Amino acid sequence: MDKELSSKSTANGKERRGGRKARVAATGLTVERFFTTPGVDPADELAWEYRSASITGEDGKAVFEQKDIEVPKSWSMLATNVVASKYFRGTPGTPERETSVRKLVARVVDTLTQWGVEGGYFTRDADREAFHAELTHLLLRQKASFNSPVWFNVGVEAQPQCSACFINSVEDNMDSILTLARTEGMLFKYGSGTGSNLSTIRGSKELLAGGGTASGPVSFMRGFDAFAGVIKSGGKTRRAAKMVILNAEHPDILEFIRCKSSEEKKAWALIEAGYDPSFNGEAYSSVFFQNSNNSVRVTDAFMKAVVDDATWTTRSVRDGQPLDTYQARELFREISEAAHLCGDPGMQFDTTVNSWHTCSTTARINASNPCSEYMFLDDSACNLASLNLMHFRTIDGDFDVTAFRHAVDILLMAQEIIVGNSRYPTERIEKNSHDYRPLGLGYANLGALLMASGLPYDSPAGRNYAGAITSLMCGEAYAMSARLAEKQGPFAGYAKNAEPMLGVIRKHRKAAYHIAPEGVSQGLFAAQKDAWDRALALGEEHGFRNSQVTVLAPTGTIGFMMDCDTTGIEPDIALIKYKKLVGGGMLKIVNQTVPLALEKLGYPQTQSQDIISYLDKQDTIEGAPHLKPEHLPVFDCAFKPAQGERSIHWMGHIQMMEACQPFLSGAISKTVNMPSDATVEDIEKAYMEAWKRGLKAIAVYRDGCKRTQPLNTSKETVKDTRAAKATVAPEPAPAVQPEPRAVRRRLPDERRSITHKFSIGGHEGYLTVGMYEDGLPGELFIVMAKEGSVVSGLMDSFATSVSLALQYGVPLKVLVDKLSHTRFEPSGFTGNPDIPIAKSITDYIFRWLELKFLPSEEEDAVLDRVDVQPKREALPARTASVQRSDANTSKRSTWLNQADAPPCHTCGAIMVRSGACYKCSNCGATSGCS
């Protein structure tokens, strides 16, 4: 049977790379319509409007602005801002600048359709028109999106770079090492990410051919890191994204494990010496390895040695001779301790990865892209696309299997067309891309879909549902790939890999038959099994056009483009979100999925309104009226609210990955977030469980492990004009209104006072506050630096001004409102657990005064008197202001959960985690590669 398959595969497609001759000879496919109507432009079925896109930085200045942009009315302003700033091409302010989402989508779809015609992908004109219309519908309706390089480059350049993910090899010689540096730089320039396994480079304890000892891979990592640091702000829209991997048997494995944590400690020392602690500040810019994700690649043999407390021996790269011997548990402990301290290294499980390898006859899998979802041959590339799962939820809350399958077919066909028309940075990558044609179809909004379906993220039912959807997507994608192979021929490398690939397809199919039915509808349960039946049958007959078809990427920027509430496989961060408003203040948004979940769970509208009102006021759903205790897990999120106790345990994240991993060609981009009090033992357990449960890779992140600057949340209040409307008629004003005069309230000669010592970035000082009889502050003294110095004089004058303001009746909350969060040097860590980092001396002073002297009601008013607006018009109206201090505590908690995130390289806002990367909720930029 295997010989028949091999000869049949060779006959169907003779080792071709997508060249012009093969395209002409290819036979096209029939494309059915599902979403569209012949003769009707999908764009005309939408309501359009003109808007102005604007993104402001942390200083309030415009980072980007473009007026009169044509956008579908259904798109949010965030989606509008992201698309206009990231994906519109042409110099701003010139006639060549794109101004319409309609034209942006047309640019991409027109180009792909033309490539499809040239490649012989369509049987008839009707098939070409159907493909064009269906793809346009999916993109305009926010049901799907390609990875960012497609939007950047397709239709702009003759042969555009379209892939987001690359894996590069390196050999043990200087020419190859320097070539890798150049290749990475060019990929960063065009907005892509890359990963490499440096285990081929001999260790620092090994000899060179000409005498002396080698530098070792960690030494060269410093050079790679420096290049990435230089290029990260010179690319199109994103930071440099890269992955560095070293095998556990490499002689320098211990140095590799410790390299990032050692540099982290250096950064701490610089911070304590007064250097800027922000992500792009002097402290972190002065240390190495901040521009990469690091992972240790381990085999089952290593993990079993850890379990058995056996020894582990490293081996020479040149000749494989044994070198150093360690206790495996000691190395495993070192990995976990480093990850506990700085988040790196993660782990990749080599035996698991290669046991699911479709092309193992060609070569093994050694590395991944920066976010670990794309794992394939060295010197290969993958273009990504994602489906928005919430758009396949029917009116009655079920999953639309038929629509989803059709969307998978259209999107996979589009990605396949892209492969042969893209530009690649090296000849090796181009050859492997054409010969193996790997694709990365995935999805976003899983967390929102589960909640809207009334299924807890951390539950067997939720995991079964997620696994069934993932299974349907991958099975249908492979079935479509087999249909493409029938007409276009299988990928060139299929003939020699038919046996291992069909073996992997059978493993996928077997896993599909083992999904438990709890939480899964009969239609979805049957459809996902049928998809794998068809994939195997068609593959056995025709082979496959693509060696890989699915991954789960972070979906950062494209998630914003699709207006997704959750990214990739992630659950929602919190039920209450706060968004900074232009000009100050915070916008409070109640999760728009909550009403859908309450409806699905059977709550009547009146009870739902009560529950939502409680959530809005308390910032937690725990304790809400009418809500049944057994329904609380449905609303669990990644982070615990300040006034609640519930959140998804880190093991719940690993179990969700376990449920979906058997149905992915690649892996899952996801960082397992752990609380700040998580121990090294917790991380050891997480890594061990990930291996036991069949994950291909895992990264953990303990909140607060990096000492970067926390989020800068404005306390600028938003005036509530409704409060100004008096319900009682005012008394008549006198004929002559006397001019108001301030009266000074002097302090008694003998008064109580409080003195507080502080330190900001190593600069020490003392605050003394004199108080009135009622305990209110009336004067301020600041002692800092030596007597007679400029700083001392300025502080004396400033303290006098504040004292006079207090004595003449200026409310303390007004001063706190205006002067807290001002930013200038010196700034940095304080040692005060209530104010861990100060942006300036005045920032510290007034935040301390706020904590000491403002009662909770006034603190609430200072924190935020925010307008609360629903994200969608269909949502019920919210209350106009935050009325309780616990809500503000919850807001602080929400922000501090992301306190270690870097500032956005585009607009300066603090980013939030998205899978193994970061995304910016203000402008849509990402630090990843998708």
UniProtKB/TrEMBL annotation:
Its cofactor is adenosylcob(III)alamin. It catalyses: a 2'-deoxyribonucleoside 5'-diphosphate + [thioredoxin]-disulfide + H2O = a ribonucleoside 5'-diphosphate + [thioredoxin]-dithiol. Residues 880-894 have a biased composition (Polar residues). GO terms for molecular function: cobalamin binding; cobalt ion binding; nucleotide binding; ribonucleoside-diphosphate reductase activity, thioredoxin disulfide as acceptor. Residues 163-701 form the Ribonucleotide reductase large subunit C-terminal domain. GO terms for biological process: DNA biosynthetic process. Keywords: Cobalamin, Cobalt, Disulfide bond, DNA synthesis, Nucleotide-binding, Oxidoreductase. InterPro entries: RdRp_reductase_class-2, RNR_2_N, RNR_lg_C, RNR_NrdJ/NrdZ, TSCPD_dom. Residues 1-22, 874-894 are annotated as: Disordered. Coiled coil: none annotated. CDD domains: RNR_II_dimer. The keyword Metal-binding does not apply. Residues 748-851 form the TSCPD domain. Its EC number is 1.17.4.1. SUPFAM superfamilies: PFL-like glycyl radical enzymes. Gene3D superfamilies: 3.20.70.20. Residues 51-142 form the Ribonucleotide reductase class II vitamin B12-dependent N-terminal domain. Catalyzes the reduction of ribonucleotides to deoxyribonucleotides. May function to provide a pool of deoxyribonucleotide precursors for DNA repair during oxygen limitation and/or for immediate growth after restoration of oxygen. Belongs to the ribonucleoside diphosphate reductase class-2 family. This is Vitamin B12-dependent ribonucleotide reductase. It comes from Myxococcus xanthus (strain DK1622).
